Amino acid sequence: MISTMECAVDAQSLISISLMKIHNSRTQRGGIKLHKNLLVSYVLRNARQVYIKEKYAEIYRMQQYEEVMTVCNEIQELNPLDLEAEDAEDEEQARAACCAEEASACGSPCHRGAAHCRAAGTVAGCSLLEDGCKEPEPSYYRSCCMEAPPAPLCETTVLDLDTHVVTTVENGYLHQDCCCDALQCGQSAQSPAKKRKVEFGCCASDAEEAHDFTAARKRAKREDCSYSAPDYTDTSNISNLISIFGSGFSGLLSRQADLEQICSKQALASLGAWTRAIVAF
Amino acid sequence: NVSFLQFLLLTADIISTVEFNQSGELLATGDKGGRVVIFQQEQESKNKLQCRGEYNVYSTFQSHEPEFDYLKSLEIEEKINKIRWLPQKNAAHFLLSTNDKTIKLWKISERDKRPEGYNLKEEDGRYRDPNTVTTLRVPVFRPMDLMVEASPRRVFANAHTYHINSISVNSDCETYLSADDLRVNLWHLEITDRSFNIVDIKPANMEDLTEVITAAEFHPNQCNTFVYSSSKGTIRLCDMRAAALCDSHAKLFEEPEDPNNRSFFSEIISSISDVKFSHSGRYMMTRDYLSVKIWDLNMESRPVETYQVHEYLRSKLCSLYENDCIFDKFECCWNGNDSVVMTGSYNNFFRMFDRGYQQDMTLEASRENSKLRSVLKPRKVSTGGKRKKDEISVDSLDFNKKILHTAWHPLDNIIAVATTNNLYIFQDKLN
């Protein structure tokens, strides 16, 4: 009998269910069934695509909200009182540091999940995927390094995890709510973020780097190595976002395919390990 | 409108394949434990209209044993995946049975006479001292109790890296094909130490794998033609005269996907689980998770007929994925004159589609609900809001009771339906 409980139709659950199936098939009598595992990998791919799309949609929604708040804040900044201006600046710094760090949250879930399963080889490994993803999820793409549709006042702030320098690039803006949510997620990054040195400077060179896709990826790799928090294993996504922001929101749409390709390569690379294991005979 | 009588049921290990021979006199079943059980139509009653569906056990033998591949540290299941009969040429019957890796040719023969009166042997078999022989006599055959013997005549091994899903005997009666996930091999029935690989879809890099072979069958009349279906929902027809390696198809049958029905599970439900040529050879039928499709071999763009087996499951795909039911491989079959097709479903339901009258029927194979020789009542699954009396709601279907294997007598309206553990035989009730 089909359970009368609602089954998990959300992408993330499907991803973990699929990974569990692949894992269980390794111990099945008669050897790994190639056909079944291939079909499961299709579900995995579909779920990942939906998951990514959902995240993009979330980012876009956040972005729209940010635009509104940008205007509000600018109105606020016109206030002659110094105190408020300072506070605003402090908030900005905190926001910048926090959110940019949050942005380097878990990478492609399936990549991690697969890696976990491969490493741990236990069901616990797979459930770790779920837990691990759930936590950073709300802040995952709440990266403030978001570029708005062509609006001259928006800025992108990028946190360099090597030098802990926050730089404001052309587009994008950090929003208070964004940071607060991130903080509410109880991220361990919270405290280190506040301690980080924050430097506002519009580094033109940085901006150019941000636009340079390749350079951004290279920097992401360095960031990856230097950052020690266990949750943030895959920061290449942040570099992809940076490059997207540089080319406008339409860039987001057109880059989506690229990003997906990159993510899919990651995912498929991890899946590839499975198929390699599967067809080792 | 045909009503059916339930005739026989037999409890066995999980039945994994069911197949009538070409005359319909014999019905073979294979099970998960590697055993083959052959039933024979009751000889005395097969001419009595109401008793044609009476089948008795004819022979039982262990076809395959579990094996262990030490090189790959893999256990090879003894489950019989497919049985195919060879056309009968003499008094003996021959069939091919296969598990995941090895195909065997079995000879089933009857012995009802025994030679008696040897000169050099005693009756019990002991040899006599030749010096004690003083007279000679000619041994004679005397009747004995019928004994049915099954003996393995050929073993076709070591030709498949992946799991064998199909075997099919060619109309030339000399060759047959075997198919696994990625390859199709051609064998000669007499030769066991080699086979020809005729289809190979293994990619150079396994990470590029996108589809596997799910079933293959020879054309019933044209010995050069065969088809194979894929997990992507396509069927390829190949002509062995064109090239030694039939990787490039002569025809590709594929129906474009309906974009409105796209879901996480689109790929799974479009995977073809069975392909069967019609007896005429003009059509072929494919089974995917939710439907049965009839294809005209002359038209590749889309099937000529599509029948929904259990469309009400489309909204349940997620649950069916979780409990693995979505991976169930249903088979399908034609009746003798290709006018009706049949396939299984859940809750021990099976479905028949009359192509001529465009009618469909749902029947249930069940011990509880049917008495022996009672008329089967058509069933109905309620899909809408209000459930009528006698209808069954989708949520009360038992998904552990599935009918994956069915077979139709080639010349008569007798069907064999396998539930998980039981074999039912139904015949139509002629008034």
From TrEMBL, chain A:
The organism's place on the tree of life at top rank: Eukaryota
InterPro entries listed in its UniProt record: IER
Protein family according to the UniProt entry: Belongs to the IER family.
UniProt-recorded name of the protein: Immediate early response 5 like
Species, as recorded: Oreochromis niloticus (Nile tilapia)
Taxonomic lineage: Eukaryota, Metazoa, Chordata, Craniata, Vertebrata
Gene: IER5L
TrEMBL record, chain B:
Family under the similarity heading: Belongs to the phosphatase 2A regulatory subunit B family.
A molecular-function term among this protein's GO annotations: protein phosphatase regulator activity
Signal peptide annotation: 1-20
Alphabetized UniProt keyword annotations: Repeat, Signal, WD repeat
Record Gene3D superfamilies: YVTN repeat-like/Quinoprotein amine dehydrogenase
Protein name: Serine/threonine-protein phosphatase 2A 55 kDa regulatory subunit B
SUPFAM superfamilies: WD40 repeat-like
Subunit structure: PP2A consists of a common heterodimeric core enzyme, composed of a 36 kDa catalytic subunit (subunit C) and a 65 kDa constant regulatory subunit (PR65 or subunit A), that associates with a variety of regulatory subunits.
Gene: ppp2r2aa
Repeat as UniProt keyword: yes
Species this chain originates from: Oreochromis niloticus (Nile tilapia)
Superkingdom of the organism of origin: Eukaryota
Listed GO CC annotations: protein phosphatase type 2A complex
